[in-house]
Amino acid sequence: MSVGAQLSVTDMRRAARHPVDCPVIGEHRRLGDLHLHIVNISAQGFMVDGTVPLGRGERVTIRLPKVGRIEAHLIWVAEDRAGFQFERIIRPEDFFALIDLLQPNPRLRKSR
């Protein structure tokens, strides 16, 4: 039996990240609702700040504007930060609409 997440998207940690300030509630099968604070996001995943009571490979489901419910797997934890990878890549048109909502300051948006 393998341990950890079996991810369908490739590891793309060099993908463009967009700074955001987005509190979300993650749903975890064992712990129930988890309050997460997303501080940056890409079409492949997101980073949260604060402690996360999860281990690598554990899954949470979050709800994002324009995207809806999407599952993510915990990839790494370092002190008070954690990185999650989405189970699927967000379509570009949905991702850009999401960024327009989450990062209304156009100076902080990455060029497209």
Question: How would you describe what is shown here?
Answer:
The protein has 112 residues and is mainly beta. It has one domain: predicted glycosyltransferase like domains (Thrombin, subunit H, Beta Barrel). The protein contains one helix and six strands. The chain has a six-stranded antiparallel sheet with strand order 1-2-3-6-5-4. The radius of gyration is 13 Å and the shape is globular. The termini are far apart. Mean pLDDT is 86; it is low at 7-12.
How do the helices and strands line up, and which of them pair or pack?
Layout: E1 18-28, E2 32-41, E3 45-49, E4 59-64, E5 68-78, E6 81-86, H1 92-102
Antiparallel strand pairs: 1-2, 2-3, 3-6, 4-5, 5-6
Number of domains: 1
Average pLDDT taken over every residue: 86
Quickly count the helices: 1
Structural class: mainly beta
State the CATH topology.
Thrombin, subunit H
What is the H level of CATH, i.e. the homologous superfamily?
Answer: predicted glycosyltransferase like domains
What top-tier CATH class fits best?
Mainly Beta
What is the global morphology?
globular
Strand order of the largest sheet: 1-2-3-6-5-4
Q: Sheet with the most strands?
A: 6 strands, antiparallel
What proportion of the residues form beta strands (DSSP E)?
35-45%
Identify the CATH architecture: Beta Barrel
Level of helix content? under 10%
The separation of the N and C termini measures 42 Å
Tell me the total number of β-strands: 6
The succession of helices and strands, N to C, reads EEEEEEH
> Rg, please?
13 Å
Q: Which blocks of ≥5 consecutive residues have pLDDT under 50?
A: 7-12
